[in-house]
Structures are given as structure tokens and as C-alpha cells.
Amino acid sequence: MASPIGLLSGRLALVTGGGSGIGRAVCHVLAREGARVVVADLNSIAAEETKKHLDDIGGRFEHLALPVDVSVGRSVQSLIVDIRGKFNAAPSIVVNSAGITRDNFLLKMDENSWNAVMNVNLKGTFLVTQAAAAAMLDDKVPKSSIINIASIIGKTGNVGQCNYAASKAGVEAFTRTVSKELAKYNIRCNAVLPGFIETPMVHSVPDKVKEKFKALIPFGRMGLPEEVAEVVLFLASDRSSYVTGNCIEVSGGLAT
Ligand code: CAA
Ligand code: NAI
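# NAI complex -> structure
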């Protein structure tokens, strides 16, 4: 059951990539804390499934599932228009979790795989943040929090992921810059850097590579999406009211 008075009571949250993995866990935790949640995903069936799950948790508030392709400006603009039409307000919490991998070694990496990852992970984060921030200002939202899901790989690099690592390092730099620009509007912007988390994204990683990674993680196991979501909750809530421009690692100690 959602708590009657949670940390986010009365807040409106937008979660991209909310149809799966980390995004879905974030939706759950934000709704549990009393937020109304807009679940936005390229996969509209998955987004509806998350919304149904949120409705089943209970609570006073209505949630919404909407389709979006975060890599396309028009699609992101329609998403924000639809949210404001439905709730009469801009979201005051935005979580950019939509992301993809197209792994290959540098010497085999094709241009489409490079572009696809940059367009969703980095450009998508830019498009959603820009559109949401403009709406927050228009609607005079008194305080807002934007949380970008980057990756520990953006710091460490990873064999087979030059596109993905570059996109996630870009998200970190983007986060720090946006935090400086938007602080005067009381909009905070932070990033979370997960390590290896049990979600569909890691299913395609060959078992031998997974074993190599587990050996490098001090906790000796992969993380759970819920363990990332609780840190997102901290950044979304007033518990982190003086925190902006930070990139918090949630990686079981993996840092090499
Ligand atoms: N770290 C260390 N070694 C790696 C590696 C990695 N990330 N990826 C591949 N290798 C090694 C393999 O173990 C293998 O070693 P051996 O020759 O000793 O057996 C060698 O590279 C060749 O690998 P493949 O036979 O798999 O080569 P391939 O051409 O068939 O596939 C690949 C290449 C697509 C890069 C594939 O190896 C792969 O998918 N690797 C995993 C990449 C990865 O780690 N992705 C993380 C996804 S999860 C994520 O991205 C979320 C996040 O933020 C953490
Ligand atoms: P996932 O694959 O389970 O979920 C990603 C979601 O994003 C899916 O529902 C997918 O439909 C959606 N999506 C993909 N492209 C989209 C687009 N163009 N527009 C809108 N939605 C789109 O992956 P996971 O693991 O939940 O990843 C979430 C975020 O966390 C990603 O940004 C990922 O890079 C990041 N991350 C994941 C880690 C992991 O180990 N699972 C580790 C570090 C970061």
C-alpha cells in the first residue's frame, strides 16, 4: 500500500523508461511515497503494465501511462503537452531512465549503433530535461528535481561499450551543467550512476562477461532495481533539498 502521507505527497512525477527495469522500480517507489506518476515509454504495453501495477498498490492518486520516443523532439513535446492537459501542471519530478545498449568492440562498431545509443541516452535526456524544465518555469512550479540515470560505465569505460560509455559520461556532464543553470529557479538536477543491475538490459550480456564483472564487485552480486530506486527517491524528495549537480554511484562498490 502507498503510505497515506509519503515523502512525495501531492507531487507529480514523470519517469521515462518506466515500462521496465530501473524505471519501473522508480515508478513503484515514487507512487509508494504518494506521488502521481506518469509512466512514459517507447513500449506502450510495458508502460500500461507499470501503470496497472501502480494502480494495484493503492493510494489516493491517479497515474498515467503515455507513449514517448525520447530521441524525437516532437514526441517529447507531445508528452509534456499531454501531461499538462491531464494534470493541469508540469511535473515537479523528472526521472530520465530510458536507455539502450548496442554493444560492440570499437573496431566493429557501426555508425547506426553509435547514433542510436547517443540519440536515446544523451539526446533523449537533453530533450526531456529541456521540455520539462520549460514547463516547470511556465507553470511556476515552486521546487523541482530532475534525476538522470547515467552509469558507472561512464566513469570506468567498458570493453564493448565505447558508444554507451561516452553517452553516459555525457549525461554526467550535462547534469552538472543543467544544475548550475537551473538552480536559480529552484530546480535541482542530479544523476545516479548504477553499476550492474538485474534488469532486461543485462540479459544479453554473455555469461562469461557477467562472471568477470561479479568478480570485480566488492558486494559480489549484481544490484536490484529497487536499490537504485531508493536513491532516486532521496534525490526526488526534500531530504536532498541542498543537493544539486551530484552524481551518486549505486554500484556495490564497483569503481574500477
Ligand atoms: N569486459 C571484459 N571482457 C569482455 C567484455 C567486457 N565487457 N566484453 C567482451 N569481453 C571479452 C569476452 O569475455 C571474450 O573474451 P575471451 O576471448 O577470453 O573469451 C572476448 O572479449 C570476445 O567476446 P565475444 O566472444 O563475446 O565477442 P563478440 O564479438 O561475439 O561480442 C560483444 C562482442 C558484443 C562486445 C560482447 O562480448 C558483449 O556483449 N560484451 C558485453 C559488453 C558489456 O559488458 N555490456 C554491458 C551491458 S549492461 C549495461 O550496459 C548497463 C550498465 O550501465 C552497467
Ligand atoms: P531496461 O531495458 O530494462 O529498460 C529501459 C526502458 O527504456 C525500456 O522500457 C525501453 O522500452 C525504454 N526505452 C528505450 N528506448 C526508449 C526511447 N527511445 N524512448 C522511450 N523509452 C525508451 O533497462 P534498465 O536496466 O532499466 O535501464 C534503465 C536505465 O538505467 C538506462 O538508462 C540504463 O542505461 C541505465 N543503467 C542500467 C544499468 C543496468 O545494469 N541495468 C546500469 C547502469 C545504468
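# post-check
The chain has a mean pLDDT of 96.
Helices lie at 21-32, 44-57, 73-87, 111-138, 153-156, 162-182, 207-216, 225-236.
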